[in-house]
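Why do we care about 3D structure at all? Because function follows from shape, and shape follows, mostly, from sequence. That is the central idea of this module. The next example makes it concrete: a single protein chain, its amino acid sequence, and then its structure expressed as tokens.
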Amino acid sequence: MVTVHEPTTASTKIWGSSVQAANDEAFRRLVEADPWVIDVRPARDVLPGYRDNLVLTSGAPMPWRAYTGGQREALIGGALFEGLATDREDAIAKFTDGSIEVGACHDYNAVGSLAGIYTASMPVFVVENRTHGNVGFCNFYEGKEPRRLNYGCYDEGVHERLEHVNTVLAPVVGEAIRRRGGIALKPMIARALRMGDEVHSRNAAASLLFNREILPSILDMIENSVPSVRETMLHLAENDYFFLRLSMAASKTSADAMSVPGSTLVSAMAFSCRGFAIKLAGLGDTWFEGPPPIHEGKLFPGHTEDEITWMGGESPITETVGLGGFAQACALSLQDYQGGSPEVMIERNREMYAITHGENTTYRIPLFGFRGTPTGIDARKVLDTSVLPVMDVGLAGRDGGQIGAGVIRAPRECFVRALDEHGRRYGQS
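And the structure:
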């Protein structure tokens, strides 16, 4: 049974039954999505319309000149890694004259963690929504070293780790997935929630479950002397965040199926170096932007608040489908990583029921008596209640690299602008 939170305030009721019906349908499509990872392939081979001179990054689309700080440095690093430029100055010149193109991940059915860099040769997970037939993508986790390309860093060590992903890890994982005939992600995510994950900032259980799922293929591959299998499994075993990219791709394919004219439910959330942005399921591919998110967190030793910077991020696609901060009560151990307390985490999670359309029929929170996670952010309810969506994130430093973790809240301005446009397009007030 699908649990729906009926509108309770006067201002949501004036939108009428047509919006409610659109939201019911968008919500149904979201919770009935069935994401399966079916392959791993280079971006150039599977992302629609991908070009060899294209570098993708997170957030609403922007021209090259608008990118600053760590996100700009990550784009330059992607161009250098792909061999599109000989050095930093050459990369800047080619981005400026357009011979190297910048694109937004979401425009290519993809999502990116932090700066979200994709280049043509980088391997991506291919995830198919078997209920609705759409496909989404996410690139690979680089490893637990704080200095990573998606955190605005590019040096010899970053280059070597990216090459290792391309040539060693991705081919083995892709072969294992293909030998299994694809792997259903939704049941795995649901089980991970019961084991202490929220599959955004904590993925320890989900990563172990994925490793177990590919184990039969791995044993066959070892028997057949496939290269690099042992090395790959050791890498997976020591990287608890490996599954994040799968949960992001699963969330992307689920959220993309929500497109229903008239709906006020949020279908994407992302940020760039410039600010935060959302999409509504009833307004197509239009982004509605606001200032950077509101944040609080816990910094790694030796770092201070004034170092925190924004360089992109699309992992909040997990919150869009009822995971991450919307399942925070499943992962109370996160308090040690990102700060806060169990009481604060539980209260934050409960708050999210006030701004969502319903409860997820598969993703459930044991601490709440297996109540479904709050799912389907309704922009109207955000404005009615003044409760802003909460997201679990890593925090980037101005000099590159991860310097901590915490929670952010989406700025109110995005929702005001989205509903203003909804009113113009559909005649609501």
